[in-house]
Amino acid sequence: MSAATPLLRSLHEDLRAGTAARHAALDASLTTAGCTDSLAGYAGFLCGTARFRFGVETALEAAGVETLLDDWPDRRRGPLLIDDLVALGHPLPEAPEAEAPALVQGDLARLVGMAYVLEGSVLGGALLSRRAAPLGVDRFAGASYLQSCADAVKGWSRFLDRLKCVDTPSFDRRSAIAAARETFEFAGACYAAVR
Fold it and tell me: Model-level pTM greater than 0.85?
């Protein structure tokens, strides 16, 4: 390889670079919303997360996510959010006004983009599990979702392995990045609706 030949980026690196601005904006909005400052803020976070996860999980399932992630049933976390809201005595969220990004059966690139954001949210949940502990929530009382994220961090490396497997010369990275950006925008709309 000559010095002038650029190094190729992995699909993961392209997804991260292509969504960096939207990811940073979402993180900033969650930080300013104070989702771990009080039980009310935390319940709002759970409602926004439930809206987001149910929308994306439903779209991924309809498009055949099991073709990408054969352990999909272990990755679903939506029901845990409902359990947590019930444990906190908080009303369940209404369906989001915004719709999850469009996804059709067999569109692997868009499926990968949406799954990238959903699976990455597990890492964020793992970080928040430590911040939420002072609120008095735990695996048995209001934080089963966050605890499941902390327990599932190893799933991220398996997801990255799947990205390597699908990243063939014909894989449409632009479509995957576009779907990931749309998914970040959907997440932002879900959280904004509960503030």
Answer: yes
Backbone phi, then psi, for 88, in 5-degree steps? -85, -5
State the total domains in the chain. Answer: 1
The per-residue pLDDT for range 167-194, each reduced to its tens digit, is 999 999 999 999 999 999 999 999 998 8
Is there a domain that residue 3 lies in?
A: no
Identify the CATH number of the domain in which residue 173 sits.
1.20.910.10
pLDDT 10s digits, 12-41: 999 999 999 999 999 999 888 888 999 999
Phi first, then psi, for residue 193 (nearest 5°) are -70, -20
Amino acid residing at 150: A
> 5 lies in a domain?
no
Quote the DSSP letter at residue 18.
H
Domain that holds residue 124: 11-192
Cα separations in angstroms, 145 against 75, 104, 121, 133, 180: 11, 28, 11, 13, 22
180: enclosing H helix or E strand: helix 173-192
The reported pLDDT for the residue numbered 33 is 82
Residue with tokens 């067999």: 106
**Are 46 and 18 within 8 A, CB to CB?**
no
Q: Is 110 part of a structural domain of the chain?
A: yes
Report if residue 89 sits inside a domain. Answer: yes
